[in-house]
Amino acid sequence: MIEHVVSISLENVVGETAKMKVEGYRFVTLSCVEIDETTVDILYHFDKDFQLKHLRLTVPKDSPVPSISPVYFAAFLVENEIQDLFGIRFQGLAIDYDRTLYLEEEVKQTPFCKYVVIKTKPPL
Amino acid sequence: MSKTIIPFGPQHPVLPEPVHLKLTLEDEVITEAIPAFGFVHRGLEKLAEIRDFHQMIYVVERICGICSMIHAMCYCQGIEEMMGIDVPPRARFLRVIWSELHRIHSHLLWLGLFADSFGFESLFMQCWKIREKILDIDEATTGNRIIISVCVIGGMRKDISPEHINWILSELKDVEREIKRLETTIMTDYTVMKRTVGKGVLTGKQAYELGLVGPTLRASGIAQDMRMLGYAAFNEINFEPVVETDGDCYARCKVRFRETLQSIDLIRQAIAKLPDGELAVKVKGRPEGEIISRVEQPRGEVFYYIKANGKKNLERLRVRTPTFANVPALLAMLPGMWLSDVPVIVLSIDPCISCTER
Predict the structure, then answer these.
(1) Mean pLDDT for chain B?
(2) So where are chain A's domains?
(3) Per CB distance under 8 Å, which residues of A are interface residues toward B?
(4) CA of residue B247 relative to chain centroid, distance
């Protein structure tokens, strides 16, 4: 089972991530898990001296998430991946592929969602 | 000065795999590099939701051919930990042997491709010639050269016979001698030095902050290797990560070259301590819960997040492959370099695009 998991909210995603960086954690990756028709879990994984620490963010699918790429630049790639596959939008991405990292521009579906979600426009 | 934008790839002379780099140049010097993917995305993670968790071993092996066994080992370790399965000691040592054989042939493949990236074709052929011996060992012991399919949940499906062990040890002696013959060329040859020293430099701080893994990170002076976690039987053999400090393409080349020789030593240690006993335990029940499994692939740390709910298929399988973590390095290394250095720098992270896209 996963240890060292801290629940966070949309308001403190960037703050908590910045705290991890100050504490000397290396960014590992993000994992997005669909919970039900409307909600996803986003797990932020960090590592320091071979010890993993995780932040768990539970958010509605249609709610944009602040990008952590201004803090950990490397996160831009996985955030773009989640944008493509799950349709979750990230705001403030260091490089935004606008859902074309893997997909073609005309694709509106979110291929990794069990429950069909069609995204047409990014939220404002 | 006016800017020029050059599309580098997706088909290009460096890699047989498709990746596109949008290079912005001022004169011959790169000012920005933006990668683009999506040419070989297969959605393998999604298959976990419809395939039996035992069948997924074959799927994860096909994420990357070159480190297929290590993908399978990482996945099996995760499921075993979730289900509380104790893998027999013999199986744990066999995992070390086959995973290190994979590391040797992956590094030799890379050394060859790296030499080819700066036009040193005879070195390319020498490296690949040596690699054939490792593939012969894989073929003789498992029946397959690359995707060897030996890991199962609970242990291993194949054993190595005493006759094979003697033959492997004698073949490794030849492999070691032939690799050492290349040492002078790889470490001191004018062409190699000219094209690699001082190219694509990353400091330790930069490499760590970019979240890099594997030889790319260790070449910048950070001693991080997942084998230090002691998975399989790595806690029972002597292991020290190979570290270089210069952080350039030459240092990354040296790390991989030294790791090739180190892997031969690790195989010898594992063979010397290989215990008798059963190969696998019977698996009953189905996995439930969340788990993270990490192992060291030839290219670096691979990260598996597995979520299961007691059904025959998994709820979520997430794989973060080492190249995915190393791509941001390119964005930091390429600006300021000459266009002619791009193939060498791109190759220096040992990119695997089918891993990256899964």
Answers:
(1) 89
(2) 5-91
(3) 1-2, 21, 26-29, 31-34, 43, 45, 50, 52, 72-74, 76-78, 95, 97, 100-104, 111-112, 114
(4) 19
